[in-house]
Amino acid sequence: MINYSTRSNLLTEGNDIEDYSRLTYRKLLEETCKFANVLKSKGVQKGDRVAIYMPMILELPIAMLACTRIGAVHSVIFAGYSSDSLAERVLDSKAKVLLTTDGAWRGSKLLHLKAICDQAMDKVKSHGHNVESCIVISHLRRVTCPPGNTSDGGKTKNGTSNGSSSEVNLSWDDDRDCWWHEEMEDADSSCYPVWVAAEDPLFILYTSGSTGKPKGVLHTTAGYLIYAATTFKYVFDYKPNDVYWCTADIGWITGHTYVVYGPLANGATSVLFEGTPFYPQNDRYWSVIDKYKVSQFYTAPTAIRSLMKFGDDLVKKYNLDSLKVLGSVGEPINSEAWLWFYYLIGHGKCSIVDTFWQTETGGHVVTPLPGATPMKPGSASFPFFGVLPELLDEDGKIIEGEGEGYLVFRQPWPGMMRSLYGNHERFQTTYFDKFNGFYCTGDGK
């Protein structure tokens, strides 16, 4: 039996190349318990919603796991959203607590996350809801400011001299705002988990809203976690001593399932990456793979196509021989990008898993399996275990053989969404009314 508490780690790679660390599973449990107790001290109870708006730092999965430990429902909101988008999601979920950082560097750009949260909380309050606590991580003071950049200067919230170019002015409400590190200082590192039922809510994740009001996709506890763990294990063929890296932001479903829950449920050593593929140079991905000897690498076709433009020499500087499985997610991958990925990055020896799935599905529903599925550039190939897809025409008739139509699923699977938060009627009409008896993905013609 593997002792995950000592052999498995979260490897963090910050925006700056000198900002990296390692957290064992044992330490992750301690930090999770401590923050769970902080949340309880703020009055958070089972079923309460906690909104999280922060960059890809260790505190993000810690906060998510702390919520699950006490039965609270987390709602991670992508830290690139505007204050209006943040406010809309906080208001819809009626979040009791908001977690954020003082700011973050995204490449060479400084993001004023606390200021965005302040604007959002004001908008939420004007609509009749009050965020009771805003817990702020002092992130900028522990990271390096990119060369040639400075911040606002002046005084920091606690009145110390702003000698660092990574500190910013913060507005502060003493009745609502508090520092993460101050709250954690005396928190107990033991927190007995709150027991929940299999169908109790685990998290809410809002869609982008590109087709109207954002939909609060609701996933529940047991089925989602089983599906996340199972798809991770088989789709990436993860083995002990492998090092896995998914580049997705946790603000999206890929980050939930294949950065946090899937890898952790399998005791995986994985990389948590805060930066961009292009900072400080356009070879950042390849340098990280070489540095940590990554064996499974999961990224988006958009990133692959962007990196292709910089030529092959940037890739060839690094040793990528550790790679065994390459993954594609988020959109269809064109044949040219697939072949570049396969031959240059994978040296023609890696399986490519071209995965199709959605926020609503919770995990992969159509995907190759490494070493078991014949690979075809640009094809997601076959359904995952227990998933029964069909292709329907406009009249709901099954299309036999090749054709164009609507992709639907005939039966449920463990990881599928259970509802849209606060609007089950919209859930029914959006996904099930078009074709009676089928889940409609919305993809197809």
TrEMBL record:
Boundaries of every AMP-dependent synthetase/ligase domain copy: 19-419
GO biological process: acetyl-CoA biosynthetic process
UniProt keyword Transmembrane helix present: no
Keywords associated with the record: ATP-binding, Ligase, Nucleotide-binding
Listed GO MF terms: acetate-CoA ligase activity; ATP binding
TM region positions: none
Segments of this protein annotated with the region Disordered: 146-169
EC number in record: 6.2.1.1
Pfam family, one: AMP-binding
Biased composition (Polar residues): 147-169
Root EC class: ligase
Family: Belongs to the ATP-dependent AMP-binding enzyme family.
Name by which UniProt lists this protein: acetate--CoA ligase
Source species of the chain: Cotesia glomerata (Lepidopteran parasitic wasp)
